[in-house]
Design a protein that fits this description.
The chain is of the alpha+beta class. It is built from twelve helices and nine strands. The chain has three domains: 177 residues, no CATH class; 47 residues, no CATH class; 147 residues, Histidine kinase-like ATPase, C-terminal domain (Heat Shock Protein 90). The chain binds adenosine-5'-triphosphate and magnesium ion (MG).
Length: 464
Amino acid sequence: MRTFSLKSYLLLLIITVATLCLMFTSLWVLYQTDKQTQQQTQQALNSAAKQLHVQRIRVQTNFDRAENFPNLALWQEAENYSGLCLRFIGVEATVEQSVCRGGGMTESWPAWFELLYRKLFHPDKALEQPISHAGQYYGTLMALPSDDVALNNAWQDIRKLMGLAVLTTISLSVMLYFAIGYLLAPSRVIIHDLQKMKTNEFSSRMPDFFITEWQYMGQEINQLAADLQTNLAERKALALKLVGIQEQERKFLARELHDEFGQSLAGLSAVASLITQLAEKDYPLLASQGEKITEITTHMMDLLRGMLIRLRPSDFDELGLVDSLKVLITGWNTQNSGKTHYQLEVIGDFSDLNDTLPVNLFRMVQECLTNIAKHSRASKALVMLQRINVPAVGKWREHIVLNIEDDGIASDLTFIKRPGIGLLGLQERVEALGGMLQFNALSPSGLAIHIDIPLQNTREESSE
Ligand SMILES: Nc1ncnc2c1ncn2[C@@H]1O[C@H](COP(=O)(O)OP(=O)(O)OP(=O)(O)O)[C@@H](O)[C@H]1O
Ligand SMILES: [Mg+2]
């Protein structure tokens, strides 16, 4: 959907409302101007008619001569109406006298304005009044307003109004533009904080805003961030605990298998060897069966050893992470009989890591290498473990970066959409340690897995 910024939307709204108001006010002003013109015409007509009455009385009372009637010049001299003509039409419908005041405008106005004004009003509408005295009709007096004067008056009024309105709208818009920008500034802070929250960063809090609505919103977002921060911390702690329990379980299983099953197999192997030895002379058939039992027992012991290594690398606790990884890599190189060449690179010291982190890192490498052996058909695989310092706000933060790359058949990352238990477990471990996991398809083919674990996080989490 197309969106507008609130600032432009409000400005557009103000300009539209101002234009509509201006249009209605203009119409109102034009209407008033027209009404005024008509009133003036009517007043002029009335006053001239009055004068003609007086003139008739003067003629009747012999104060004046009959041929002096009508005399509109008197009206022309006495009154100060402008843009108006008076016409006296006698009994025989002939114009007996016509006088004008004002008119002859030199100013001009736009053609559209004249067209509009003439459409809406009638600036040249004439008014008339019959003149009679003592029951006798003498003629009709007509008042003809000058349309030029009416148009000019209306145009002057509109020009003033438009100038004022445009000035008001522009200054109002400029003021509002800055005022709205200032008032909406908190929204940028809020959006910035919400974007941070999207990346699981819940530590920052909104400042206080002086506008109540923003203040409420800020408080609610702060509360939400605090709740999410607690939830995330709890989830991480739980995931870490689960991973820890899983490791404990595996350790226990490995010990039981080693101590119970391993010992029994060793016993069985010893008995089988004894049977073989004893039966070699007298019961050669039995001796060969004894040898078979020894073979099967040896095979089972090999399987058990492999299983024990997967459950808990035999001397992980004694060897530590780096040496255990070396053993793992050597194991894969021998198992694969050269099909894939596995290589390990370690940069930095890993001896002081707490006890959950090394075993988790080991498990992650173990799963990735198993996947390479199972799915990639790669000729080379590289495991790179680094401990690096990354600049954080005002300080350095230690990170463990694990890169595992192969040049196998992976050409895209579609498999991530339907991960198996292995990749899910990998993801869970990384999340539990507060880290980040990334898959990249290599060119021309192959897979690169990038794991980044901030060390401080892991320490905080595991110390809870
Ligand atoms: N290095 C790799 N090269 C090519 N494909 C891979 C690679 N690693 C994983 N995949 C693909 O990702 C899929 C999911 O891997 P995942 O480890 O989750 O499951 P899995 O190995 O099939 O079974 P398991 O749950 O026992 O590990 C694999 O089936 C495989 O198609
Ligand atoms: Mg797997």
